[in-house]
From TrEMBL:
It holds the Pfam family DUF815. Gene3D superfamilies: P-loop containing nucleotide triphosphate hydrolases (3.40.50.300). It comes from Rhodovulum strictum. It comes from the Bacteria. PANTHER family: SLR0930 PROTEIN. This is DUF815 domain-containing protein. Residues 77-203 form the AAA+ ATPase domain. InterPro entries: AAA+_ATPase, DUF815, P-loop_NTPase.
Length: 280
């Protein structure tokens, strides 16, 4: 067997079973993205987020999550959190804004984004974070949900509170989802109708969401809250506009979209800022 053949075999073995990921320099950034195959933590130089004060209509969820995150950053016990509910109401924006607010208070807190597709590798990520001295991490998974044939949820159970090692003391898990139980209703009902023991099949599926200590619900906003969001964006970016004119244009925009949410409010403001020649 020649040398080239041996090199090719060695490279193939490394691809099948790569070497453990090396810990990055956590001092270089406050935010990271986890990538699998090969495993690595990529630093994020600039996080896409809005200021916490600009998030309107979600006061209870904001205060609860802020307190939980502050406790965690201080080394106190904290719960994993599931932010669920109406689309476009600021679930992921709230997580990123609270991370920035806690960092601004002087706490050394990192946020690591994990894609749903990479959940099977999350055990290796936890091993990496567990060994990081003096660091505390929010694991963040945006738009988390599972289909009827998706087994990724089993990988997540050990992160939340299962397994022999359990969740590392320096890690907390925040997830957002449009579904309270992370799985579509028809999937749960199908399990109930076809299983030999229906209640046990359903319990297996919904037990994942039960592992989150905090359930924070997000609901469609009222028209007043929608207008308050837009006025807050205008004030923050120095756009002066008559209230009556702003109200009329914002309501017309909402009517054309057939929806009212924080995302729609931001989309209207983006259009308004462009028409006024304001960079955001």
């Amino acid at each position: 067997m020649n040398r080239d053949m041996l090199c090719r075999i060695a490279e193939a073995l490394e691809r099948i079973s790569p070497a453990p990921a090396e810990a990055p320099d956590f001092a270089c950034a406050d935010a990271f993205v986890w990538h699998a195959a090969p495993d690595r933590l990529a630093p994020v130089a600039r996080v896409n987020r809005v200021d916490l004060t600009l998030l309107q209509g979600i006061d209870r969820a904001r205060d609860t999550l802020l307190t939980n995150t502050r406790h965690f950053a201080q080394g106190l016990p904290a719960n994993n959190a599931l932010l669920w509910g109406a689309r476009g109401m600021g679930k992921s924006s709230l997580v990123k804004a609270i991370h920035a607010a806690i960092c601004a208070e002087g706490h050394a807190l990192k946020i690591v984004e994990v894609q749903r597709e990479d959940l099977p590798s999350i055990g290796r990520l936890l091993t990496l974070l567990r060994a990081a001295p003096g660091q505390r991490f929010i694991l963040f998974c945006d738009d988390l949900s599972f289909s009827h044939d998706d087994q990724h949820y089993k990988s997540l159970k050990a992160v939340l509170d299962g397994g022999i090692e359990g969740r590392p003391e320096n890690v907390v898990f925040y997830a957002t989802s449009n579904r309270r139980h992370l799985m579509p209703r028809d999937m749960i009902e199908n399990e109930r109708s076809t299983a030999i023991t229906p209640s046990e099949a359903v319990e297996e599926k919904v037990s994942l969401s039960d592992r989150f200590g905090l359930w924070l619900g997000f609901h469609p906003c009222s028209q007043d809250e929608y207008l308050a969001m837009i006025r807050g964006y205008c004030d923050a970016h120095g756009i002066a506009m008559d209230d009556a004119v702003l109200r009329a244009e914002a309501i017309e925009w909402q009517a054309t979209r057939g929806a009212r949410s924080g995302r729609v409010a931001w989309q209207f403001f983006t259009d308004l800022a462009a028409r006024r020649g304001v960079r955001i």
